[in-house]
Specification:
Shape: globular
Distance between the termini: 30 Å
Radius of gyration: 20 Å
Largest sheet: 8 strands, mixed
Order of helices and strands: HEHEHEEEHEHEEHEHHHEEEEE
Low-confidence stretches: 331-338
CATH architecture: 3-Layer(aba) Sandwich
Mean pLDDT: 86
Structural class: alpha+beta
CATH class: Alpha Beta
Number of helices: 9
Strand content: 15-25%
Helix content: 10-25%
């Protein structure tokens, strides 16, 4: 994410160059029991995720939340199952009988947190005093939780949550442990994650849901069906930065440009890090390349080249601005789904 989204001063931002790198699809995750309850409410009874049966995590079997519902849940405008309707159908209460939906999120210093704040609530892109800005991703009132984040303490259990039943994890693993604990204790939880994390049926019982009908897959981003991604940036200091001399020493600029940045702009390299899910290929995509017609690209998820961008131009010198809505580039050919 670019520096302005972290609230840095204009002076600090002027001393940094944001090099656009790869696109990261983000997903909404829920506890496994919440996932199964959503499936039941949406009539997906042939593949309920209750015992980890085969096929329960395909895109056809994934339950769906609308963007409005995601915004309501993450901002706690919707805070329990009695307030959440799916086509007028009530969501069954969890086994504990406690219908309040816990939030397992990240700290404000996390790029994942900033991405979700931007994608669902436009935080960092709108005037903080505007009426629109008053609806935002729920903050934690735990001491220090919103800044550095907290490590999930399994022994502490329910004590990890603040008075608003929000937990701000220091890392993705803390968020996932939070959701898994909710599932193990008969509670529902919702959280945020990048789209490439790996759930299971034991210690990581979280599940991705569709948003507006689509899973957070490379396939769907390429096909211009799923737009909840951000373009990450790699920062380097300008000549006016007090860190420039340290950066501009020896082979460091070469390592930055020819190895770090070049790898994040290489579709073959990024594809090696993909995870193959029942609902599609999960991982990063490279941005569209200047001078290459999208219509000529081999748009296969195994060659993860995005067909939209959050830049004003696909020229490599144009700064990334994740406040821009994705813009389609070129002519879209037939997409190869798995």
């Amino acid at each position: 994410m670019e520096p302005k989204l972290f609230g840095l001063s204009a002076t600090t931002i002027s001393r940094l160059v944001s090099e656009g790198a790869a696109a990261i699809p983000f997903g909404v995750v829920v506890s496994r029991n919440f996932y199964a309850a959503l499936q039941a409410a949406q009539g997906l009874t042939g593949c309920l995720d209750t015992v980890g049966g085969a096929g329960d995590d395909t895109e056809a079997c994934m339950p769906n939340l609308t963007k409005a519902q995601v915004r309501g849940l993450l901002s706690q405008q919707i805070f329990d199952t009695t307030s959440l309707k799916n086509g007028g159908v009530d969501i069954a209460a969890p086994s504990s009988g406690d219908t309040v939906i816990r939030i397992c999120k990240r700290a404000d210093t996390s790029g994942t947190e900033q991405s979700h704040e931007l994608l669902w609530f436009s935080e960092g892109c709108i005037d903080a005093s505007s009426p629109q800005a008053q609806i935002k991703l729920a903050d934690s009132v735990n001491a220090g939780g919103n800044q550095g984040g907290l490590v999930w303490n399994q022994t502490l259990g329910a004590g990890n949550f603040d008075a608003n039943l929000v937990f701000p994890g220091r890392g993705s693993g803390d968020t996932e442990s939070c959701i898994d604990w909710a599932d193990d204790n008969g509670l529902y939880a919702i959280g945020i994650n990048s789209g490439d994390r790996s759930p299971n049926d034991a210690s990581l019982e979280f599940r991705y849901v569709k948003v507006d009908g689509w899973a957070p897959s490379v396939n769907n981003v390429q096909a211009q069906r799923y737009f909840y991604y951000t373009e990450n940036t790699v920062l380097r200091p300008t000549a006016s930065s007090p860190n420039f001399a340290a950066y501009n020493t020896g082979v460091r600029p070469t390592i930055f440009s020819n190895y770090l940045l070049a790898s994040l702009r290489n579709a073959t390299v990024l594809a090696r890090g993909h995870a193959l899910r029942d609902w599609g290929r999960a991982g990063l995509l490279v941005r569209p390349v200047a001078g290459v017609a999208v219509a000529a690209l081999p748009l296969n998820p195994a060659v993860p080249i995005n067909t939209t961008t959050r830049q004003l131009s696909i020229d490599p010198g144009t700064p990334v601005d994740n406040c821009f809505e994705p813009v389609a580039v070129g002519t879209l050919p037939v997409i190869v789904d798995p």
